Amino acid sequence: MLQRLRGIVQEVNAAKDLQASLDIIVARVREVMGTQVCSIFLHDNDIDCHVLMASEGLNKQSVGHVSLEVGEGLVGLVAKHAEPINLDDAAKHPSFHYLKETGEEAFHAFLGVPIIHHRHVLGVLVIQHSEIRSFDKGEEAFLVTLCAQLSPIIAQAEATGAIQGLSPSGHKTSDTIFSGVAGSSGVTIGKAVVVFPPADLNLIPNRPARDIDQQIDFFNNCLNSVREDMRALHSKLMGHVKEEERQLFDVYLHMLDDKALGGEVVEQIKLGNWAQGALANVAKEHVRSFEKMNDPYLRERAVDIKDLCSRVLFYLQKKEPVTAEYADNTVLVSEELTPAMLVEVPKGKLVGLISVKGSGNSHVAILARTMGIPTVMGVLDLPFNQLDGLELIVDGYNGQVISNPSEQLRKRYLDTIAEQDQLNKGLEGLKDLPCETADNHRIHLWVNTGLMSDVLHSLDQGAEG
């Protein structure tokens, strides 16, 4: 069972989007469990319902069109209590709600398991069978474990869709909130600029290519540099290892051909992605494909793909160093922000910070508080490599990042920003005045802190020591 569990997770990891992930899950679970029906209901916050998103065994026409209110039916009961429900005859349960469109009347046995991510129920995975029987403990344990493994993948896929303005069921959505922890108080609205460390395929964002033909030529030149490296390594090993071992580098050369990886990257560039983003997408897709293979030898080839593409990425970055373009209202975004990344932003252009990793005690958060920049840390579900160029709201008071803001929410935050500015201007005129009561009694204003950054900030704001 563990092998089957691993196989399903790897397949889902390789899926291109949320719907593809769900279709793989229901097909593979139905096959592995030997049951007649497997379905997934996801909670759509936009319409506040559990929507039938994928199914093998129920009427296909009902997928995407059938939904249950929150708390309605057995699915709603599973989601409400965040616990599995295992029934030998579902129709006899008082919470059973018949969905005519699905054709589920032929099925009696029911096992529903919640899909939980960070203590939040994303949806419910259901298996059904026409036989009147309870599913055994082993089957229930398998589904519980599977849902735990799949929940972060589903959450990430949902988040990517939300960034594009779509709810799980395909409805247009707005005011998408990603929660983290407050790093530095304040509110700002700005344009996301994604920054990343060099030569890491997993962190390269998608960006539009300014000149597609130039990017293709540039990529091919870097590809030729890697080909030369492979030939040099092949020659260097002559007399040191057997010829069949040296032939590995010939395989690498074939993988870089126009009909293999090289050609796929060029096709992505033609669609408008810059060379680094196109390479990262192709590399990750092939790595996922190899990692889900059952054959251990073939599975290990994923390492070769990573190595080869990382070499190409090295040349792309070496010959054309990435220099971020900072907007006047830059919100700096990264998987893990560092103080050095902050320093790179021209003075006066940085208005907000977002880090997928980190906490309120990280160096970046401390520095942000000193600089008075609204910051949110630890936004774990944020698909940061999809954010470049998007407008974001950074709420440093509540530790939230908001994408696709509605006009109503945007205006509310603009009003908050205006109030902040007005308050700061008012305090600016008071900070240098002596601390005296109405009856002229002098009071000393001291700061109590263990951090030098807070000391400097407090002195700047009028503290005496």
TrEMBL record:
Gene Ontology biological process: phosphoenolpyruvate-dependent sugar phosphotransferase system
Keyword DNA damage: no
SUPFAM superfamilies, per the entry: Enzyme I of the PEP:sugar phosphotransferase system HPr-binding (sub)domain, GAF domain-like, Phosphohistidine domain
Start and end residues of each GAF domain: 17-164
Keyword terms: Pyruvate, Transferase
Cross-referenced Pfam families: GAF, PEP-utilisers_N, PEP-utilizers
MF terms in GO: transferase activity, transferring phosphorus-containing groups
Keyword Transferase included in the entry's annotation: yes
Domain of life where this protein originates: Bacteria
Family: Belongs to the PEP-utilizing enzyme family.
Name assigned to this protein: Phosphoenolpyruvate--protein phosphotransferase
Organism: SAR86 cluster bacterium
